[in-house]
């Protein structure tokens, strides 16, 4: 009898723990966001994250609060001898949280760890050719987003992006866009949207622009977007997210309908930031 009571009690406690999860998460995040943001951390943001200095004051404040929550919930791991410092954590967290501004968010709920390598790193790839033969190969990458709860990044490439913030490339934005894309359970270039009508509009505009990029890539025509975005719709979403935050004026002028679609999703208009 005692054993049955203990098992029943354990079940009740487990159910209560699960049921109160959102409340506990909200309280934890409120506590984290109330922490005073250290002055040296602000200096890192100004030095490393060009977008931070262009944000209106209220978005700077919101970004700092989101960074505190992100740092309190995600684990950073140095790989191949790389040492994680405040500069590394702040540089990555700030740009990851840039994608979350102005929106209700669960802070990349599937993400647990950010693995940082000193340089580009190799990962194993399995590919099947037209004959059905599976080939194993090593791919050299600057970043990768995994559905198992990890984002992998090269610090060397991050530093290059920080040194050239308006060239249309940003590995952090790219990989965290993939994390947003997969929040609805699919990595297909369409993140979670609020209505059927929004999905229909998103699909129509994205398909038009994706097809145009594929055509430009096949012809070798000049384009604002990197040809890598023509690989598949998921990569297209990640590539245009990079350009949205790093070359907003060019994006808005050359691909206005697409820009407006991203602006509606992110609830931001980087083209108006000073």
Question: Summary?
Answer:
The protein has 274 residues and is α/β, with parallel strands linked by helices. It is built from twelve helices and six strands.
Assigned CATH class of the largest domain: Mainly Alpha
Basic shape: globular
Strand segment tally: 6
Supply the number of helical segments. Answer: 12
Please indicate the percent range of residues in DSSP E strands (runs of 2 or more): 5-15%
State the share of residues found in helices, binned by percent: 55-70%
Model regions low in confidence, pLDDT < 50 over at least 5 residues = none
Q: According to CATH, what is the topology of the largest domain?
A: Cyclin A, domain 1
What number is the mean pLDDT? 90
Major β-sheet strand ordering: 1-2-6-5
Q: Label the structural class.
A: alpha/beta
Give the biggest sheet.
Answer: 4 strands, mixed
Distance between the termini: 70 Å
- Radius of gyration, in Å, reads 21 Å
Number of domains: 2
CATH architecture label of the largest domain: Orthogonal Bundle
Protein name: Zinc-dependent peptidase
């Amino acid at each position: 009898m005692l054993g049955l009571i203990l098992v029943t009690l354990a079940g009740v406690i487990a159910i209560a723990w699960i049921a109160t999860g959102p409340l506990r998460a909200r309280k934890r995040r409120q506590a984290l966001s109330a922490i005073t943001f250290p002055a040296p951390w602000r200096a890192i943001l100004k030095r490393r994250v060009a977008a931070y200095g262009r944000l209106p004051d209220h978005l700077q404040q919101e970004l700092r609060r989101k960074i505190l929550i992100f740092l309190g919930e995600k684990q950073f791991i140095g790989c191949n001898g790389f040492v994680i410092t405040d500069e590394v954590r702040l540089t990555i967290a700030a740009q990851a949280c840039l994608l979350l501004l102005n929106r209700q968010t669960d802070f990349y709920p599937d993400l647990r760890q950010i693995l940082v390598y000193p340089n580009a790193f190799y990962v194993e790839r399995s590919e099947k050719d037209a004959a059905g033969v599976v080939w194993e190969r090593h791919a050299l990458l600057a970043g990768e987003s995994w559905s198992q709860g990890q984002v992998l990044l090269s610090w060397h490439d991050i530093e290059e992006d920080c040194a050239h913030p308006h060239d249309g490339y940003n590995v952090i934005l790219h990989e965290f866009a993939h994390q947003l894309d997969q929040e609805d359970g699919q990595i297909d270039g369409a993140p979670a949207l609020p209505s059927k009508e929004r999905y229909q509009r998103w699909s129509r505009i994205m398909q038009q622009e994706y097809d145009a990029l594929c055509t430009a890539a096949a012809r070798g025509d000049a384009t604002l977007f990197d040809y890598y975005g023509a690989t598949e719709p998921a990569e297209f979403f990640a590539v245009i997210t990079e350009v949205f935050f790093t070359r907003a004026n060019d994006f808005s002028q050359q691909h206005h309908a697409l820009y407006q679609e991203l602006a509606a999703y992110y609830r931001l208009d980087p083209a108006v930031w000073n």
